[in-house]
């Protein structure tokens, strides 16, 4: 069985790390390079950097921030935000990213997934799905959770895989920043529908939440931000807890 991965996320705006609740009320949480250096030392398995306003502002993710972060890392780096075309992905890779995360652009032009997978390999293409529960299931949102689409999360995850995505980064907008636990029902439903890894995001608050999303949620990786940024939980302690629960974890 493959090891379960612990992923830290840096939501970046104007070169600084920010964090909010349900994608709103963003507050400063530190310097991206400093946090990257700390996570690399503490044993985080992977790092995701999301330029949270790049798509809304119609620009690429900040190359300088990506370069500063990548210099601090010896672990895989995924970058998202403002990747609207093949050239944008190329700029992110050139700046030091190992993978690109696409969201709004993939929904607008699904063929972009196939194009990037063909150029960089599926392992380098992460399709981010931001979903909010409604009466029919989970609605997919774009533009940093601002705009609802006609797509449903499970069918979109299936299509993303079919088009060449190597991973799904699945965020529950309802749980984001709440620390009330991952949406295990959402995660399990999507993970059961695809054969590629699913990274669960939104709601991490306790060690138990991570265990639940790996077991009941069927996630391959679990992503968190604020619980790590503010040094509330040591990564090593979390990994020891998960290993003690019988989960395959890279210590």
Describe the structure.
By secondary structure, this protein is an alpha/beta fold. The chain has one domain: Aldolase class I (TIM Barrel). It is 36% helix and 29% strand. It is built from 11 helices and 12 strands. The protein has helices at residues 32-42, 54-57, 63-70, 86-95, 104-108, 111-120, 153-162, 184-193, 207-215, 226-229, 235-244, and strands at residues 5-13, 16-21, 24-30, 46-51, 77-80, 99-102, 125-134, 137-142, 147-152, 167-172, 198-201, 221-224. The protein has an 8-stranded parallel beta barrel with strand order 1-4-5-6-7-10-11-12, surrounded by 6 helices. Strand 11 (198-201), helix 9 (207-215) and strand 12 form a beta-alpha-beta unit. Helix 1 (32-42) packs parallel to helix 3 (63-70). The longest helix has 11 residues, at 32-42. The chain starts with a strand and ends in a 7-residue tail after the last helix. Residues 20-27 have low confidence and may be disordered.
Summary tags:
single chain; 251 residues; alpha/beta; TIM Barrel; eight-stranded parallel β-barrel; 29% strand; globular
What would you give as the CATH superfamily?
Aldolase class I
Structural class: alpha/beta
Distance between the termini: 15 Å
Strand residue content: 25-35%
Q: What is the mean pLDDT?
A: 89
Please give the domain count: 1
What fold name goes in the CATH topology slot?
Answer: TIM Barrel
What is the number of beta strands? 12
Q: Write down the CATH class.
A: Alpha Beta
Low-confidence stretches: 20-27
**Level-2 CATH architecture:** Alpha-Beta Barrel
Please state the CA-atom Rg, rounded to the nearest Å: 16 Å
Q: Summarize the main sheet.
A: 8 strands, parallel, barrel
> Biggest sheet: strands side by side, in what order?
1-4-5-6-7-10-11-12
């Amino acid at each position: 069985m493959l090891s379960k991965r612990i992923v830290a996320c840096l939501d970046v705006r104007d070169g600084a790390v920010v964090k909010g609740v349900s994608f709103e009320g963003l507050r400063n949480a530190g310097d991206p390079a400093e946090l990257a250096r700390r996570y690399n030392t503490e044993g985080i398995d992977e790092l995701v950097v999301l330029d949270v306003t790049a798509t809304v502002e119609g620009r690429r993710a900040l190359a300088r921030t990506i370069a500063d972060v990548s210099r601090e890392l010896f672990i895989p780096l995924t970058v998202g935000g403002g990747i609207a075309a093949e050239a944008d992905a190329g700029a992110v890779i050139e700046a030091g990213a190992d993978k690109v995360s696409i969201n709004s652009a993939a929904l607008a032009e699904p063929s972009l997934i196939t194009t990037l997978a063909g150029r960089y390999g599926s392992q380098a293409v992460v399709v981010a799905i931001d979903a909010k529960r409604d009466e029919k299931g989970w609605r997919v949102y774009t533009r940093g959770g601002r705009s609802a689409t006609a797509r449903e999360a499970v069918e979109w995850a299936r299509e993303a895989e079919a088009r060449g995505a190597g991973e799904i980064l699945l965020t529950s907008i309802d749980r984001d920043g709440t620390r009330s636990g991952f949406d295990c029902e959402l995660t399990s439903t999507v993970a059961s529908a695809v054969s590629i890894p699913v990274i669960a995001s939104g709601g991490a608050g306790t060690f138990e939440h991570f265990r639940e999303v790996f077991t009941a949620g069927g996630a391959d990786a679990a992503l968190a931000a604020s619980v790590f940024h503010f040094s509330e939980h040591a990564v090593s302690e979390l990994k020891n807890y998960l290993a003690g629960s019988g989960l395959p974890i890279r210590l």
